[in-house]
Design a protein that fits this description.
nine-stranded mixed beta sheet, binds iron/sulfur cluster, 400 residues, binds S-adenosylmethionine, 14 strands
């Protein structure tokens, strides 16, 4: 079987100035629903893998019709839990991508995986299918915290999954959740250092958020789940920056840390406001079509999505041109998440709006004075680490 690592003749290396073009594939199923999670993820007793495989391929065919000339620089299998996909499905999607589009020689193909021991034997098959980067949802490195987070795996399983990922894939990353109830600075520092001893070139470190509609939201509302106070959460964030900076994995985005060159290229494409196709239930896409930035969105509910694809060849619920003012807002919200900030030339090209015109001059001056925003020496506009921590408030002021 041919894989993306044994590519067809259409595979070429993109010039470094070529913007990224990603393909996102959403797999909406999980073994169980974690109490903090509001992703489009569902528990089903049975999944008809052959039907799902055909439907994902049909949506690729649909989007290839309008974007076929582009060069794919990344593919991302996200979820839900894509490590529950049959490796055959992952292989079929990757194969179809390489038939429809040119594929960059150094294409990044990431799959999100749960560290459950039952899924680990599949890692080699995902690698053989063409996946070259694994992203593991570890969340915590001790059993009590994993239990409190409602995870279905132990710390030992998480460590075993990390070890297997390190030997199976070219690159791997894992996710941790911090600012958990009762977490002290000392305990978090110890856990971060333990994580660093296991890490490759990338770590995602998310502050626990209470999402509406989740089991945690209900417990939080009843006062049964108490998060660290704002000041304590800020100290946990600062500590994260210091420890990971010192270890050579600085933040390149609010929650994402990498050694230089180890950044997730697929996610960088989102934050740089580059184009990507989104297929699968609830997937979003941003595509430049006929010169206009276009938003796409697929049907969200898994069964509705599947029925629509089987009926019409795709489950596109929305495809609309984005006005330049809205594109500018989106690009600002995305770009200020990155430590590299926003390159004004790229911004103007991708949004048809000059960066200056998208910002309130007085607010910008105030935010620069306050140490939340800087003009970098390379000409980019960036949020400082302090600005990134309170980015929503910064954006409200900047765009008012
Ligand atoms: C799609 S999941 C990752 C893969 C897989 N489903 C798993 O959980 O192992 C994406 C990540 O988002 C993070 N996440 C989800 N909900 C969160 C929340 N409410 N607060 C903080 N992080 C969250 C978790 O770290 C999770 O690993
Ligand atoms: S955190 Fe991951 S495993 Fe848990 S419900 Fe969300 S997507 Fe599924």
């Amino acid at each position: 079987m041919r894989t993306a690592l044994d590519p067809p003749s259409s595979v070429v290396r993109p010039p470094s100035s070529t913007p990224g073009f990603g393909i996102y594939v959403h797999w909406p199923f999980c073994r169980s629903k974690c109490p903090y999670c509001d992703f489009n993820s569902h528990v089903r007793e049975r999944v008809d893998h052959a039907r799902w495989r055909s439907a994902l391929i049909a949506e690729l065919d649909h989007y290839a019709a309008s974007t076929g000339g582009r060069m794919v620089t990344s593919v991302f299998f996200g979820g839900g839990t894509p490590s529950l996909m049959e490796p055959q499905t992952v292989a079929a999607v990757i194969d179809r991508v390489s038939r429809h589009w040119r594929v960059a020689r150094d294409v990044e193909i990431t799959l999100e995986a749960n560290p459950n021991s039952v899924e680990q034997p599949r890692f080699a098959a995902f690698r053989a299918a063409g996946v070259n980067r694994l992203s593991l949802g570890v969340q915590a490195l001790d059993d009590a915290s994993l239990q409190a987070l409602g995870r279905g795996h132990s710390a030992a399983e998480a460590r075993a999954a990390i070890a297997r990922a390190a030997t199976t894939f070219d690159r791997f990353s894992f996710d941790l959740i911090y600012a958990r109830p009762g977490q002290s600075l000392e305990a978090w520092e110890k856990e971060l250092r333990a994580a660093l001893a296991l890490a490759g070139d990338h770590l995602s470190v998310y502050q626990l958020t209470i999402e509406p509609g989740t089991a945690f939201a209900a417990r939080h509302a009843r006062g049964e789940l108490v998060l660290p106070a704002e000041q304590d959460a800020a100290e946990l964030y600062e500590l994260t920056q210091v420890v990971l900076d010192d270890a050579g994995l600085p933040a390149y985005e609010i929650s994402n840390h990498a050694r230089p060159g180890g950044e997730c290229r697929h996610n960088l494409a989102y934050w740089r406001y580059e184009d990507y196709v989104g297929i699968g239930p609830g997937a979003h896409g941003r595509l430049t079509l006929d010169g206009a930035k276009t938003a796409t969105r697929q049907e969200k509910a898994p069964e509705t999505w599947l029925a629509a694809v089987e009926r019409a060849g795709h489950a596109s619920a929305e495809q609309r041109a984005i006005a330049p003012s809205e594109a500018a807002e989106e690009a600002l919200m995305m770009g200020l998440r990155l430590s590299e900030g926003i390159d004004p030339h790229r911004f103007a090209r991708r949004t048809s709006t000059p960066l200056d015109a998208a910002l309130g001059a007085a607010a910008l001056a105030r935010l620069i004075d306050g140490g939340f925003i800087v003009h970098r020496r390379d000409g980019a506009l960036a949020a400082t680490p302090a600005g990134r921590r309170v980015l929503n408030a910064v954006l409200v002021e900047l765009m008012a």
